[in-house]
Write a structure and sequence with these properties.
Blueprint lengths: L11 E5 L4 E4 L8 E2 L2 H12 L2 H4 L6 H19 L7 H5 L1
Antiparallel strand pairs: 1-2, 1-3
Helix pairs in contact: 1-3
Amino acid sequence: LRMCINCSNPNIESFSPRQGGMLCINCNSTDSIKLDRGTVALACRLVEAPLQQVEMIRPTELQKKELNQFISAFYEYHIDLGSLKSRRLLKN
């Protein structure tokens, strides 16, 4: 989540479900999902924070929307089942 998976550039701007990681502007691909820097920082925080602290994190509406896109695209690409009914759980 902290650097481009292709060139290790720390200035990332999008996520590629196909490649399974973050991309910089130079390595951006057609399948990538552009993410706000705040959303990327939040994703890093969610991964690194103890569970007790995760409960206290209050994402913005934009961050919720982008994280949902990010997670859904990753699942749909790698599980290859199309749209998942259980995605409703991710929205809550």
